[in-house]
Amino acid sequence: METVINAFGDVTIGRAALIVAALIFLAGCYRKVSKYFGDKAINDLKRDQEIKEVIEQSKNYPKWRQQSINIQQSMNGQIHDLSKKMDKLSKSSDEGMAYTWRYRILRFDDEIRHKIRHSKEHFDQILEDIDKYEKYCRENPDFPNNKAVFAIRNIRETYDKCGDEGTFL
User: Fold this and answer.
1) Residue whose C-alpha is closest to residue 154's, from 162, 145, 164
2) 166: phi > 0 → left, psi -120 to 50 → alpha, else beta; which?
3) Tens of pLDDT along 9-40?
4) pLDDT tens-digit series, residues 64-123
């Protein structure tokens, strides 16, 4: 015990309290510094994991790019097919109108040949149909257009005759 007294014999209560307070202060500082570095380590670990995730995802970029290209090519093909179908539908519709114009021309010619009289407005309408029909036939040489040639000639001659004689309805 003498050794303890010799070592700590001149320590007073004030000094002991100061040492205890310093130890408590150092323990508190240690806890705060330890918590700070622990939190920093956890945050750094999370950030590193996020960076690794991004790097791993970036490795998939070529595959994703190819998927995008494949989808784009598929969509282009579908759009092309749809465009073809729309062109075909438009051609069919135009051809249907040409048949309608031809039918009206032939019908009008039959009425003239049966001595049915028409007004100037009716003639003007059928002449407009003739213009549209002939234009369609010029633009579509595969369309069978020789079926109304004589009817068109007769309608024009009759129109000229009615105009000269003033015999429109």
Assistant:
1) 162
2) left
3) 666 777 778 888 888 988 888 898 888 888 88
4) 888 888 889 888 888 888 888 887 777 777 888 899 999 999 999 999 999 988 989 999
Q: Which residues 6+ apart lie within 8 Å of 167 measured at CB? A: 117, 161
| Phi and psi torsions of 114, nearest 5° | -90, 15
* Identity of the residue numbered 51: I
Helices of type H across the chain: 2-8, 13-59, 61-113, 120-139, 149-165
Sequence letter at residue 64: W
CA distances from 96 to 62, 83, 99, 116, 133 (A): 50, 20, 5, 27, 11
Q: Count other C-beta atoms under 10 Å from residue 130's C-beta.
A: 21
